[in-house]
Amino acid sequence: MPGRKAAERPGNTGRPVTINDVAQLAGVSVGTVSKALNGRGSLRAETRHRVLSAAEQLGFQPNRAAVALNSGRTYTVGMITTDTIGRFSIPLMMGAEDALGAGEMSVFLCDARDDPIREQYYLRTLLSRRVDGIIVTGRRTQARPPIGTGLPIPVVYAFISSTDPRDCSVVPDEAGGAHKAVDHLLAVGRRRIAHITGPEHHHSATVRATAATDRLAEAGLRLAGAPLFGEWSEAWGRQAAQLLLGANAEVDAVFCGSDQIARGVADALRAAGRRVPDDVALVGFDNWDVMALGCQPPLTSVDMELEKLGRTAADLLLAAINGEASPGRHTHPCRLVIRDSTAASSTPAPALDSAPGGS
Amino acid sequence: MPGRKAAERPGNTGRPVTINDVAQLAGVSVGTVSKALNGRGSLRAETRHRVLSAAEQLGFQPNRAAVALNSGRTYTVGMITTDTIGRFSIPLMMGAEDALGAGEMSVFLCDARDDPIREQYYLRTLLSRRVDGIIVTGRRTQARPPIGTGLPIPVVYAFISSTDPRDCSVVPDEAGGAHKAVDHLLAVGRRRIAHITGPEHHHSATVRATAATDRLAEAGLRLAGAPLFGEWSEAWGRQAAQLLLGANAEVDAVFCGSDQIARGVADALRAAGRRVPDDVALVGFDNWDVMALGCQPPLTSVDMELEKLGRTAADLLLAAINGEASPGRHTHPCRLVIRDSTAASSTPAPALDSAPGGS
DNA sequence: GAAAGTCAGGAAACCGTTTTCCGAACACGC
DNA sequence: GCGTGTTCGGAAAACGGTTTCCTGACTTTC
């Protein structure tokens, strides 16, 4: 048996094959193997081929730890979700992971679960692992304090944003999304539009409510009643819809802060004998397929395109790793997905003064 | 300036601090620093303290790549989701990540997106990164071919299972879950139980349907009509409920293969004037909160406890990494979560012969 | 035919950490 | 005052790659 004195751990069937094994089989030195595999130096075609087939035969995979050690690059990034991984994080993560994978980067998954201690633990771990960069995501779009200061590697905030304007953040243009929702309702002839949304202390709720109000004001209109702040739940949607029906039966559209709320509203309206979209048009937010498609009728909704957003974040991170940082807050447009809940009524609304700038 | 000839990459503000920096500051050798930080060897308390405070002062974090290189352990594992990361993968991943994090292991996230090419790419990547183990998950519980053979590291299949019985798989006891659902319906006095579920070619659908049928047979009963196979959607639930109402109005309970289907059934029943649970009791599967709680009334459902399952998978993987492999198929019990959709009717069903073994 | 130049591939340093081995200093007993 | 043991800490090898430098063989040129 050749003199292999590597610390063989008994549980392992055959320790991983190293560049040394390849060199031995090909009858060359390790330096030559490295050159052959990486296309460096000058080697005879025959030698190169001999090395390549030896590597192939042994199923050689270079030990990335060793590569990392002398290149200083690990080709890994960390992805920290500040809160529990959920519906919003997933498309983000998938988009980012996909974009990073294309750049041969692997992703460390870190679920901080809304716990600052866990978050800092993960940050230390990632720094210790010498990741090339970090993506920070979270369920809420509200700005949060930077995860660390003076970090030796670039950080990109996705969906969530950093309170430090010098940090790189990628956020959905929620106000723009609300604008699109309102514009669409106006375009299909609705004029008495109510807004039902989540808790007032929730950043997204206020941003969307404000944007909707503002857009209506630009069109010379007002929201039908004050925005109804509550919870991000179907139950609240149902409850709020009943409030609306009790107070003001003349509403012809409801723009909701989430698809869940919209769905509750749809159910309550139907139970009260109002038809969607004929009597009341409905727009949700999030374009969450199970909610938007399960709704009766299927729901028009604002899509924040989180997967694209994740991809953008990853691209910005890759650029920053390569020395081309793009600090600042980058907004990412939302897209309105139109479905039956805002289909043009069979009985068209009376033509009012046309909304200015509406195209 | 002291002779630092490290390859300084210009983009980086201050290269990460190494054990050498600590040694220099503390006025000792690197070996001593290592001993001080890891509690090895015999050092004077004063020396140890001097090293620790130097490390503290510099914010030293050992380079894990270097540690990996000479320990052979990377303290990382790969998590491959064979299909797109989704509703089922998330709790699994969270559970696994949590259990692994407690063991100081970091997790590489790999989303294979139902693409065997991607899957093999990720497998190679993970092997190249010398992960200590791999967890394979997927959306379907059906057995799949092993991700690789003769791998040098342990693999645990979670939720999904491997066709090779020597592989370690952790799967939910779906049949047991169906049994619990049926037992509960029997216990609240229902006798004419129908079953609506997903596509017949879907493993989970047939397993649950068969288990429900068998359990009823044990109680001397039969399913009300053949199982209705369709899709995993609310629309199918609504449609199937109408079929049921048209064909057989005497059903007093429906056990559904998923919460989405159950929700569709609930909506259709309500639209047809049937009360849930008074006229028809309803049980779902998955205990997906948004569906089960959004449903009117809230849905009794079978919970596969995926987070626990993920944790179990991680624990089995950690054990296997430590040389204590537990090959074979491990089943994980389901839990029935009882809500209003199966509340005891206000008008109790006539007491039939009591179901045997019902407690 | 000798000097110069080119080409192929080997030897060794290096990355950052751990661990083994060894030597120096010191205390102790005789 | 000299061997012996103990304690502390340094030197160096090892992990698995990459890269630089160098040498030897061959080719070219005058």
Detailed description of the structure:
The first copy, chain A, is of the alpha/beta class and 359 residues long. Chain A has helices at residues 19-26, 30-38, 45-58, 64-71, 89-102, 116-128, 174-187, 203-218, 234-247, 259-271, 289-294, 306-321, and strands at residues 76-81, 106-111, 133-137, 143-144, 155-158, 161-162, 168-172, 193-197, 228-229, 253-256, 281-285, 300-303, 328-332, 335-337. In chain A, the strands form three sheets. Chain A has a six-stranded parallel β-sheet, sandwiched between helices. Chain A has a six-stranded mixed β-sheet with strand order 9-8-10-11-12-14, sandwiched between helices. In chain A, strands 4-6 form a two-stranded parallel ribbon. In chain A, strand 10 (253-256), helix 10 and strand 11 form a beta-alpha-beta unit. The longest helix of chain A is centred in the middle third of the chain and has 16 residues, at 203-218. Chain A is elongated, with a radius of gyration of 28 Å. The first copy, chain A, starts with 18 loop residues before the first helix and ends in a 22-residue tail after the last strand. Strand 2 of chain A pairs antiparallel with strand 2 of chain B, so a sheet runs across the interface. The structure holds a DNA duplex (30 and 30 nucleotides). Chains A, B: It holds the Pfam family LacI. Chains A, B: It comes from Goodfellowiella coeruleoviolacea. Chains A, B: One of its GO terms (molecular function) is DNA-binding transcription factor activity.
